[in-house]
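tool_log.txt
---
The assistant was asked to compare two proteins side by side. It first ran the structure predictor on the initial sequence, then on the second. Raw inputs and outputs are pasted verbatim so the downstream comparison step can read them without reformatting.
(1)
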Amino acid sequence: MAFFTRAARAFLPVIVFLPIAAPLPALAQDCVIRATEADQPEYARPDDPWIYRGTDIPVDEQWLFGEMPNGVRYAVRQNDVPPCQISLRVRIDAGSLHERDDERGFAHLLEHLVFRESATFGPGEAIAHFQRLGASFGFDTNATTSPTATTYNLNLPNANRTTLDDSVRRFAGMVTSPTLSPANLAADVPIVLSERREQAGAQRRVAEATTATFFAGQRLAERSPIGTVETLQGATAEAVQAFHQRWYRPENAVVVLVGDADPRALAAVVEKHFASWSGTGPFVEAPDFGDPVAPAGASPSNPVGEVDVIVEPGQPRAVTFAILRPWVEIVDNLEYNRDNLLKQVATEVVNRRLENRARDGGSFLFAGVGRDKISRSADGTFVTFAPLTQDWQAALDDVRSVIADALAEPPAQSEIDQAVARFDVAFVDSVEQSRIQAGSQLADQIVQAVDIREAVASPETFLEVFRSVAPRFTPDDVLAATRELFEGDVIRSVMLTPTPGEASEAELFAALQTPVAASSVARDNATAIDFADLPVIGEAAEPIAREPVGVLGVERVSFANGVRALLMGRDNEPGRITVRVRFGAGWRGFEDDEGVYAALGSMALVNSGIGPLGQNDLDRIAADRKLSFNFEIEDGTFIFQGLTRQEDLEQQLYLFAAKLAMPSWDSNPVERARASALIAYDSYGRDPSGVLNRDLDFLLRGGDPRFATPTPEQMQAATPAEFRVVWERLLAQGPIEVAVFGDIDRDATIAALGRTFGALDQRTPLPAEVIARSVSFPEAGAQPKVLTHAGDDNQAAAVIAWPLGGGSEGIVQSRKLDLLSQIFSNRLLDGLRERAGAAYSPFVTSNWPLDVETGGVMFALVQIEPDLLPAFFDEAQTIARDLAANGPTADELERVVEPARQYLLRAQTGHTFWLNQLQGAAFDANRIAYLPTIYSDYDEATAQEMQSLAQRYLSRPGWQLQIVPAAGAATASSSATSGR
């Protein structure tokens, strides 16, 4: 039974809001595509839904399923989140596991060719066509290839009957009749090879070696979707056509449509454009994917089989061992799901113990257990951990001893109850938010259910099934479920180490065969904690002012201690509240020598504790509540953020306020964060992307030491005592804004604010020198700055950047610059990928910080072959100069404006988008003053405005960075025994 947790799309900077005091006209428009008399789907089967055959799982009747005589199956559903959008998925049951030896990579190559040219699109027309309809490339229009399937995706905004019909027609033509010509192959093979090159390096070598070990003897062991250089370069139009004819058949297709339309209309359009599809030649059964099998002579009680030790200099140590069972297509019924839920609770208990051990003297940094069914090839229980030191055997014994205890004795009922409470909160939350689940996510659920050969269920059904298992959540039943998790046909393991000679396959094999003693040290038998027993923040306070800000009921609330709050109630998102606390100076608050404590704070500040609560206490107190605690450092402010619900809102506010009022300073999280940073540091230099992650932010800020990734020497010198000194100062400084947006009870929320943030002491003002602290931008030189990496010699990366500005006075300009960067990005993609095949994913982005007056930047980034670096810089500089001299064409502008316009119209229903735009408005009037023009700033943007901005910012030479292979860098990993 497939059920997937939903997450709000809250990370985009372009946020839509209704104009002051009046909604956008689009909100009022009726865009539902209603069924007409002509919409009479012939093959809909409401009484025989194909995905539920053979199961007793209650049918989710919001879905309409159908099956055509040619074998195409479909699932359609009405959904108005977001309004006016239709989500289309076409899943083909053909992935890399279906490839013959000389076809490796063909499934993924074909995915590219389908978008290149087809019966319904000329060469290179598809992406631009959907951009003109408002579908952004990559998010709304894309495709994915896995070992078992290839899926084509379209989220069509502002859909009407005409665009829906035409888009389904075009997708049908793309999938059924791509133009697989030698010319198109010559265009796409270099792009796929560039994608392969970008994925190359240590991480891919480790992934491929791990897969080869875990799935030894099976097709999955040697069939990565990216393929091989030899088979891709050897691909011919005839060979790719043969692959398409063999697998792209109606019997292998599932079409999903979800959106703002009557299901009958959706079903009718699917039948209209897919019913005539017929396969070529006889139907071919999928190959046998094989089963995991223990080698001859393996012990039945501890069937350790294949192991591998992979040496990758610079990579952090990690060990994974898997208990593998054959994948079996199950009967997806209620009892099967009850058993799964019992195993999930058992897994949660084991993981909680492993985390306890890691926090309290364990020899591993982290460890986790998970069960997964991999590519219809194995049903496995996977145990992964990172040793703290070179003594990997001690860490392995430590992890295995915790698991051995879980297998030997039943858990305490209190441990089970905590795990059950966490699941129950999550399932209740899913029910509450099901009415706002996006149509794209519902469509993806069907695709994933088909992939794992299971049914789907409504959130209500899942909650009911979970609660029906309550009588079985007993120590004995959880013990039995735990034992089942760790039983299998074969145990396989992979160890990753940066140091040659540190371990051998024989040593790893022997360590797994050696029995370990059960250790109960990680059991969690502590009593529950009640918020009522915690110390109060201070004396509760009433607000001194409440005033509307003029945006659909948003209210500013002020307290005598200087705290200000923004409240917005939205009843269309039941059970969902976001709390965002902005306080202090952000990056401005750190001195030049305190960058190491910024890095440690990002990892350890929350876990250092609150008042009497340590890490484990925080976990326990949140077990039966919807609470979360995220921390971010931004240019001009620090942020606490959590997702909660009204009944837990005061507790969420308490955690945040208490962190400011009574922080505690447990040294263990700091030491653990320091160990993590030390383990990870060497990996940054092993490929271009790692070097970018390590150094780009630092370089773009003029070499400001606060933004440098701390070196191992700096980490070694950092202390918990100094961590406390730095963060005590920062937590005490600067104004506080608390934003509470979502499904709130306004009066209860204000009362809760008064007992928490209103009860805080007066804050220390930010020092003048902190307020004035700014960042600089590097001077552009005649030659690029050069950094090196120690990875493959065919990998390089490049950046070209121009300084922008900052501050809320420039909000309107920042919106226009966002469009300009997208125009730039489209041109760069066309030049480097589509025409030259030199790079897979070049992109351009702009950033305009609103809380500080400096630090904005527009930059282009690409991963590319070293000898093509000059071509990238030439292409980027040429585009910049041309945009400044001539501006964009009307079509280029429309291809970025329409997706932005449609995103704005779709996004406006979610409170998170309002929050992203209004954050800071309690102290900064510009956030409200420039709100009314947000739609028109995008919708009415002109080519002249784009040219003017390009002249202002892009006419100067850009600062350039290139990351190239170090001389003599190793290009391959090694294996302890095989030389890999």
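(2)
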Amino acid sequence: MRLKELTIAGFRGFKLPQPLPLDADIVVIHGPNGSGKSSIVEALEWLLCGDISRHERARSPSEYRGDYLRNVHCSENAPTFVEARVVLDNRELTLRREYQSPRLSRILVDESEVADLSVIGIPIERHTRPILSQGEIKGLVDTEQSDRYSEIARILGLDVLGELRQNLMDLKKNMNKDTTISEAIKLRDARAEDLRQYEELRLLSDAMESMPYEHQKFLKMVYSCVKVICGIEVSSPDQSQKALKKERDRIVRSSPELSKLKELRIPGEVTPTSELLEALLETVKISDRLKAFATQMMEMRQACFLKAGIDLISDSICPFCLQQTITEARKNDIRAHLQVHEEGLKLEGKLGESLGNFSSRWQTVVQDLRAKVGIQTDIKAALDEALSILGKTSDIDALREFHDARLPELQAQVDRVNQEVEQFIKSCTNLLKHQPDISIEDLIALAGKIRPSIEQICARAYSDVTELATLKSKILSSTPGMSPEMDRKIKMVMELERLVENSEHVKLAGIYGNRSSELEELQSKVEEFERARMEGMLSDLSDDISRYYDKLNPGEPIKFTRLATAKPGQRHIRMEGESYGKDLNPISCFSEAHVNCLGISLYLCQRVSRNPRYQFFVLDDPIQSMDEPHADRLVDVLREISQEKQLIVLTQEKALCDILDDVFREHDYIKYSCGVYGKDGPKIELEIGSIERNLHLAKTSSRGTKDDRINKAAGSVRKAMEAIIKELLVDKCGVTRMSLRTQRVKLSRRLSQLENSGFDRDDIVNMRTILPIVDQPHHDDPNWDIPPQRIERAVEILESICKKHRLGPYRIARTIVGRVRNYLPKIGVAVVKVKQPFSVGENLIIEGTTTCIQMPLDSMELDRQKIGTAEPGAIVGIKVPDKVRPNDLVYKIMGEQ
């Protein structure tokens, strides 16, 4: 996919719709920080992926709540959209994304709505976006090894595996925090410990804790133990409880009667609270998501009213004014308004459902808690009977404490927690009614308060029930006349009773153990797969990174060698390098320019070399902290990329702009300048196009307004003339591009330099006649004007010079056929890596930052053997008349355009 034009409206720094033509092989956008360059990049990101990397990489995501994408100066009804005209598979398409809310947008392809751009074959994954920003470069290299692992995983598209691994870890962590599960494990462990005291029941204890746990196998073992002890065949927990009770009663009947204590039925299982707490957590999550709509609560209230109305109204008569005002157009307006608030309304609906679920489950739990407190009366009767038969004992004193203090305390705690929960439910209900007495922050804080209260009260109830059951058992077993054998047997019976009564807890603990083991195994497999994928991709990637890095840093003593993962179990990636055969950590000794080069090299591998579907690449501020030699070599790399992809570079660096101007001026090249923007958006102006484009713009603007003639036409003539003089100095006078870039001189002095080099005097005289038109001081005079005829004459002069000296639209057509690898000065031979075939007898141009040679190819050699044609991939030697340097490009002249 290639870009032709980008239009931005109401997005980030852009208020008014602003089209930006991009239909060129190379586009440069230059401007200082704060001039709107980043908004252009973010607009393209949002169009393609639905979000911006600034938000995705933010360390404080909460700062991006609300309408962070929408221009703050836009009126309420002003549209926010990004639109691009593109060429995809030789078809021109219009892609458009329209803003609806911070999380919702509408995507259209040629005015037809689509789910996402993948329907037309455009990759939408984050790691495929053909954009590289300076923040990404710095964030990748100069960081901890663990952070670098996450960043590289994101670049390679492996972050989905990291997210899966983290989700598995979070799931296991949440399971460990679940109070119902922890209570079940605690109870199972207690039962297992008690059963180990008896040889006959020890196998049951082992089965409870075995992994993987099999509940049906465990129950069959329980039934077998019941048969051995009670002599009755059973096949269910209910039958087991009846058989054990019958056996216990038979044993107790041989001792003095404690009928009240025997009849005391202590409530067994505590109602599981996991589902209750999950419902509470879901309510909090939805409330937190509603924060994004907190400023729109009044509008949401109106939207709820409108939604109810649109659902109920069946005709065009308004129920308030009784007039036919509810037209179909009005209904469509209401539906459009509702669509804006659709996400908020859906969240409110989900909050209502979640709140209802939580409220229902809380009623079940609180009833269970009160049932446990309600046995206080039965305890009093059992206490009186036991006291009259056994007298005062420590166990009976403990039973009295339950009756007099602990159960009343539990009752008071249940009532207090119930009030807190009811207050939370009431606050949620008021929020759903859009009443202003409760904020979402208060609601979430209240939920954070009641959760530990619920966990504490349920844990307290469980602890009391367990202790009370133990106390009952101890009092019964201390009855006079009980033989040691009878005492041992009744204790085993009661242990089995407790075990059967709590079999669901044992099952839950066993299932948790199985799931925990499965999660650990799955997590291990995910980590193993992720590591293998990462190592394989890093191995391939390292070679390409080295290739790009060496192009940016040829002949450096410190070299990058590879990216490598750390030892198993660590999610770390280290950079490895070498210097004169010694291994080292390159990050510890790289300059900032080298660090930038390494970061750029890694991203270029993934987003250029491995991203074939996108035929363009956007580079945002690539050379911060780069010196001029590194910037030169980066441009050489960009020149290579531009042979395969459309290149868009945004930068604040004037030096980089100058290099790009010199290298690409005569290619299909556009340059824009961004001025500091006001509330309507940045001011983006065409600064440099090709000579042909500037001459065309001058001609078309010459017949416009006075402002068009002075600013557009005269400015375009000046830019074309600057480019022509520079090309003449390089092509005809042997001046290096580097010297022209570092010199800042007026056009009149450039003409003198050209004249002193022996250039055609008539051409010099003709160009001097243009100077008054393009002289900037004249433009400050309010009375100054330029007749259209003078502009048109200036264009004719410059066009004739271009035609005469084959510049601009008349430049010799050429194609890249290779790149200089080395220069052998003693024999005057350039070593060239061949990209496209070329032959002896053809005319070549060798061009670089300081090189410009045009020559016929008389001979060339491959492996010291003369050859007639160089094939792609070969490395050949060709005789050159002057010095060349590595990375200079070799062109074959194709004829005249």
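---
observation on (2): The chain has five domains: 2-130+611-685, 138-253+495-584, 274-480, 690-808, 811-896. DSSP finds 29 helices and 25 strands in the chain.
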